[in-house]
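On clarity, I found the account of how folds are encoded harder to follow than it need be. Since the whole study asks how a given chain folds, the encoding of that fold should be made plain. The format is easy to grasp once an entry is in front of the reader. For illustration, here is how one protein appears when written out as sequence plus structure tokens.
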Amino acid sequence: MLKYDEVMNTQRQVIYEERRKILEGRDLKEESLTMVEEVIRSTVAQFANREIFPEEWDREGLLTAMNSIYATGITAGELDELHVAEEVQERFVEDGIQAYERKEEELGVDEQSGLLILRELERMVLLSIIDNRWREHLYEMDYLQEGIGLRAYGQRDPLVEYQREAFEMFNEMKDSIRDDFVRYIYRVELIRQDEPARPRPQRVQISHGDDVSGGPATGAAQSIGSKVPRNAPCPCGSGKKYKKCHGLTA
């Protein structure tokens, strides 16, 4: 049992160290732009990559996918003129970073602290997403540990299997944190609600297209109690894990 706990303790140390850095007020701009670039490159690779001919690229699907991340300024006509996968990636990365810089300029500077508002929002959004995804991960790890002993019937070492799957799940969680952060931060809005006699505190609002919520905590918190564990069998009866079946679109 101690070996299983060691796996969780290692993961916990990584997450807690990230939370500590955020709470200490670390500047996240460089890290944020790195996540933006990674998400953009991985998205482009799904629709346009060197393994297939340019005429077979799903350019329309690519533009739709990119607009779900941020409001891209790249048009269908401009995209039609690009025929090298690396050029497509570089063009979208450039466009995505420019959009991020515009968001920073749009939000401006906090009058009281003199600091860029986006820097504080980056910390708030990332911390909230990490906390929600970590809680969800703990729930899934409990589910994994409960059934890992059954692997022995298949002549497999339960501990080795647990370590392997825990590692994969942890990496998936980190990827989901990155993806969630990029999608949220582009849509974050600062709504000032001031009364003449009594200024009210500022409120952060995050919008998802037509859907508007109070922040990343809302959707994630609701999903914890309502969705099937990602490593559980899919309820549709396919025999696949939920995360590999209907969980892909959840």
